[in-house]
Amino acid sequence: MNNYQYYFMIQQFTLFSDFFMHAVFSHSRKAVQLLARILTGKADLIVVEWGLEVKKGFPFFRNDRYDLFLIDQYGNVYNIEIENTLRTLGKRAFHNMCLLGSQGLKPGEEHKELRENWVIFLTKKDFLNQNEPFYTYEWFNRKWKRILHTKAHIRFVNGEYRGDDAMGKLMHDFHCTNPDDMFYDELREAVSYFKKEPKGVNAMCEIMREFERESRNKERESIMRNLRKEGMSYEKIARITNQSLSKVKSFFKTQQTA
């Protein structure tokens, strides 16, 4: 696929498009800060650190990669996920929160020093079909109607919401293919860089090329593993996959030591 074809694909992307969203929010602290402020309702939130595709977990247990991970000026921690499906969101949100909370205190710190932990899933579809801008979950005792103050917040944001407020405008912008139609300057500027400016468009094309290369490599590796399971020799696998024998042997040697 050439740059001309990539360019027309890029013009169709929205902020719900996975690696386009990653590129935009990796590029712009202002866009990340705007997003975090609106999703949490914290108008004074300042992003001190942030990263995309941040890996969290422990040895011998499942690790997860967070779409967006950030820390504010008070040390509060936020995981924001951009979701196109609604599958197992409750369990995923709980697991993400457990990972955040378990790493919230340094050795010697008291429990009272635990910062706020936020897990936010911005879903393309309405999570509860109630047309609310978002749905927040806290630890709550049903009988005594009391909230357990854990400083842990799970929120599902409705990507279909279109109210005449900050959240409605943000959701509108997330669905825009044309940055000129966006309400927020921070998002318009960041998205325009990758859709209109030559340097940004070229960077996006390279990201897409790399994605294609990785996809082809994963497909080839899967074929190699399946052929080996069928008892095929390294020599035959090399011929079928159009690779050198040394590369095939090196791949399986790596698999054995992984």
Q: What's the structural blueprint in terms of helices and strands?
A:
Blueprint: H1 3-10, H2 18-27, H3 29-40, E1 47-56, E2 64-72, E3 77-83, H4 89-102, E4 117-123, E5 134-137, E6 140-141, E7 146-147, E8 152-158, H5 166-174, H6 185-195, H7 198-229, H8 234-240, H9 245-257
Parallel strand pairs: 3-4, 4-8
Antiparallel strand pairs: 1-2, 2-3, 5-8, 6-7
Helix pairs in contact: 1-7, 2-6, 6-7, 8-9
Describe the structure.
By secondary structure, this protein is an alpha/beta fold. The mean pLDDT is 92.
Which keywords apply here?
8 strands, 45% helix, alpha/beta, 258 residues, 6-stranded mixed beta sheet
Spatial strand arrangement across the major sheet: 1-2-3-4-8-5
Give the termini separation. Answer: 33 Å
- What is the element string, with H for helices and E for strands? HHHEEEHEEEEEHHHHH
Write down the overall geometry: globular
Would you report the number of β strands?
8
* Largest pleated sheet: 6 strands, mixed
Roughly what is the average pLDDT, rounded to an integer? Answer: 92
| Low-confidence runs | none
Fraction of helical residues = 40-55%
SSE-based structural type = alpha/beta
Radius of gyration: 22 Å
Amount of beta strand: 15-25%
**Number of helical regions:** 9
Give a brief description.
This protein is an alpha/beta fold. It has 9 helices and 8 strands.
